[in-house]
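Obj: model holo form, ligand = zinc ion.
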Amino acid sequence: MVKTANYMTLWGRVFLIAVLFNTLLFPHVVNLQKAIIKKGELNLFFSSSFNKKNVNHFTLNNPHREIYDLKNTRLGHKRVPLGLGPNVRIAQNKKNTVRVVISGAKQYKPTAYQPFFSRNEYHISLPRNAKALPSEHRKQRTVKKTEKPKKTASRTSASKYSHKYELIVIDSGHGGHDSGAIGGGKKEKDLVLQIAKRVEKHLKKRGYPVYMTRRKDHFLKLPQRTKIADKKKAVLFISIHANSVPKRKRNKIQGVETFFLQKTRDAKSQRIAARENKSVLKGTNKLSRNVIIDSVLSGPKIVESNKLAIDVQRRIITNLRSRYRGVKDGGVRHAPFWVLVGASRPSILIEVGYISHPKERKRLFTPRYQDLLAKGIAEGIDNYLDNRKKEIDF
Ligand SMILES: [Zn+2]
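Output (holo structure tokens):
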């Protein structure tokens, strides 16, 4: 060491000392500047050369998740997305560790590599159904190269992230020639559209982009509704309905109920689920039953949907009870035969009340009641998504 130093110029020695000093006190921290989904892979872009020895990969179960901890890495900017579509979440887990969480079925075994053409990138293969977000969203995800990591970056800042990449699809049940349930001359299709528009308003106020399956009184086939959510790469699918019972029971049955939904593409499971779910769903009308079954059949995420349903139901009831007496909590419901396969967005169906119940019907068509209901739905969605971000810090 001394001998080597003897051959060095004064500047060489100063440089060597500076490098050693720097590595000892400040390990090389890179910024994660951009994250996009391309050709079935998550592409991560760093501010400078990224050492793949910084990656710690492990698996967590229930639900199955693949975790990539990127040491000596910081989120370059708050606009690096926390969630890219329904399968990927990225957050500053520790001061210098960025955590990437990819959810998918158990059979999903990711491969990760550094492309030969760039040391500033790292690629992770995704489960097959993970797709890129619309390009206009992606464009805004890039961050400025000049941005320096902030020393104060902390794991508690997750809830302050913006919601602008979390698109929510709000589905108003029925429409057009399909009135849905009818009570006292009032139609379900009109009621649910009025409430959906208020939900949209409350979500937008909180910074969420919203897509409505319908804004007017027209008919949409059931599969079209869930297809929209796929096409738009929504993070959540919320279907709004109202319930009814036959005349002889109309004064007895009332209340708000939230169903959580799970789907599979397998035809055999679809038939079994449809048969199994039939008796469970006997109480609901045929159309909402079809919506439930359809939704059950094309999206998994049972645990997530259940959590979402609990948060939404709780916020609806709290809001309504703050101003109205005798609001009945019908609770969160699910069918017993729902298999967890693959990965899609959490989906719920809210039965906002019984249009057949004279007193509840009157309330349901009151602007103030509708607004409390809508506010509750928006708050429930917000609670759920914020908790989901905190989970990344486990
Ligand atoms: Zn309905």
